[in-house]
Amino acid sequence: MKYFFKVILFLCPLFSFAQLSLNGRLLGSGIAPSSNTGQWIQKNLWGSLQVEKKWEFKGEIKSQIFYTYSDSPYFILAKNNEGTSSKLDLSELEFSQSVLNEKIKLVAGKSIVKWGRMDGPSPLDVFRTRRQQLIHPDSYWQDRGEWMGQLKIPQIFSSPWSLNVAHSWRGEATDIILPKSNVPFSLELQRDKNESHFIESNSRPETGLQLTYTGDRQDFELVGFDGYEHLSLLETQSVNLLTTPAFVYLRPLHLKKKVVGGSWSKALENWVLRAESSYVDYSTNNYLLYQDVSQANGAFGVERSFFEDLRVIAEIHYTRQLEFEKNSAASDSIQAALRLANRSILGPLNQDKLGLLIHLFYSQDSAPEWKYELTTLSYARDNAGVISPKLTYEWMDGLKSNLFSNIYWGENRSPLGQLKSLNAIGASVEYFY
Amino acid sequence: MTLNSQAESNAKISPEELMDKNRLAQQFKSLKADCVIKTSGGKRRPSEKSFTWLRSRQDNGIYFNTLTTFKTPAEIKDQAILFLERAANQNEISMYLPAYKKVRRVEASQQKSSFMSSDFSYADMTTFQNKEYNYTEKKSEKCPTDDAKTIDCRVIEATPKDNSTAERTGYSRSIVWVRVDQNTTTQVEHYDKDNKLNKRLIFETSKKMGKGDQGQDLYFAHHLLMNALASEQKTDLNFDQVEINLPLKENIFSLQNFGK
């Protein structure tokens, strides 16, 4: 591994830009048996490399190599440990060319990794909840490995409105970093045992539209798309109609969904206000027993600076499960069994959620090489949360190191509380060329 | 008018008229430059950033739109900051974060904070708005900067007309040295809200760039040096490949154009 990074460092000057990140866990447990289906594995060593070459002429061509390495997956099945996970993409390509006139732009190609994406969460991304991110296809259209085309009109008839229409073409969506669990693994589900499970997901819009209004000191955005949510999902295969399901499977699935949403922000004298909302509707899917799930999300937050050096972001978000158990295609008895199954397996997910996120960022103008961050996320319902302090020191332009920690608390069955044994301290080094 | 006669004329006009001429001497329709900003001194580690600078005068003829797009270091590549100047301290400043394709707005009270970890503030990077200040003449003397030591300067004190200007800039008053041969600024001393000398900005390598709308000579200082006196830090801002009055399209300076 170290030879690989040495070679890459040697090759960096060949590229326009390069970014290398190497992370390690210093203290803390590495395993959390979260459920009867598998274990959370804390990574010991993980890293990523992103290099970019850019050619400019009338349009622009960018090519990137993106490599990620991890010595263990985030989550493994009890009998299906795939061990080291890594992925190398050599074919990322984006082609951009202005056509028709300068006011309309077409972007086509295999979507490219956003520059600096692996540089941890930004204040803005911390601000958004995971669900809220789903309504922002601009972020997700940049997922790697999808061929896509976008039509962009930065200003419609010189108005404050801009339009972005995109369509992606792909075969089956693929998991990027997490190991795939293609081989179903069955185990007995204990009745009345109400387990909680993280279900990893990525949003994969196929066709989407984004309309943005930008005015003086405020803007808003409307987004709608039709696509998929890529899930690592628990599935009930064999059902006893009168009791609980007998077996469950964990496998990747693509859940069809429609999303509409909007966001708004306004800058005041001392504050920046933001609000977001979305409606997500999952369509019937043959693989899924909990069908026609829909939910509404809302978030409101504020940003403000104190004493010029301290920036504070606070956000309240709320998720309302609107429909969770409907299965119109099945008989009444099957529906009754499915409701029971859903409650057993996915019960903790079938909860309205009220969360609070606070992010503090401190850096003095007189010593900008030091950066201090503290992020907390907590949920009122299960009294669970996580606090993540991070300290960054920039040694020189292009080289910085981080010391970070994740400390979880809460009930064992809650999504964050189940990770308590993964409390850890880690360190990382990042190099930019 | 010869330089000498212009200098004689400028030595007699009121401070307000002088500052108006000072504004006209930098009244480009548009400007493009490659910039390097270096910070050093104090306890801070030296650092260097490069960016392209596009500036265009708005239709009102007074205010400017400015777009800075960073090239290096790689960590901030393609990060952009858009300054849209407005009347009555309503300047709008937005920052584009390419990694997230999101725009972060900079609230008004934050505009006195550091511009990209330098000793310039966001407010320093916008145009000095004459109408927002009252002027009194302090004295006349030889210009204090090295490249204009033999030139006469008039020393003008600019005091904000209302608190919102002082709040936005963080300066309770500024002393401006205007060289009478060019009507250009050679040095500015900014005082903080406690009336303590806070920063000293020096304009160097002033070059004649052509003629303005009213036939006036246009000048541009290719090197700015900001000294933060309390922290003993300094920031050098160098302009290279400066071109003026280019046909820059208005939509370049729009949030919608960020990252497009």
Structure description:
The complex is a heterodimer of chains A (433) and B (260). With 433 residues, chain A is mainly β. Chain A has five helices and 22 strands. Helix content of chain A is 9%, strand content 53%. In chain A, a hairpin with a 5-residue loop joins strand 2 and strand 3 (38-41). The longest helix of chain A is centred in the last third of the chain and has 15 residues, at 332-346. Chain B has one domain (3-257): Lipoprotein localisation LolA/LolB/LppX (outer membrane lipoprotein receptor (LolB), chain A). Chain B is 10% helix and 47% strand. Chain B is globular. Chains A and B meet through strand 1, helix 2 and strand 16 of A and strand 6 of B.
The CATH class of chain A, by name, is Mainly Beta
At CATH level 2, the architecture of chain A is Beta Barrel
The CATH level-2 architecture of chain B is identified as: Clam
Secondary structure category of chain A? mainly beta
Distance linking N and C termini of chain A: 20 Å
Strand content range of chain A: over 45%
Q: Largest sheet of chain A at a glance?
A: 18 strands, antiparallel, barrel
Please state the oligomeric state of the protein chains shown.
heterodimer
- Alpha-carbon Rg of chain A, integer: 23 Å
Shape of chain B: globular
Structural class of chain B: mainly beta
CATH topology of chain A: Porin
Helix content of chain A: under 10%
Using only CA atoms, what is the Rg of chain B?
18 Å
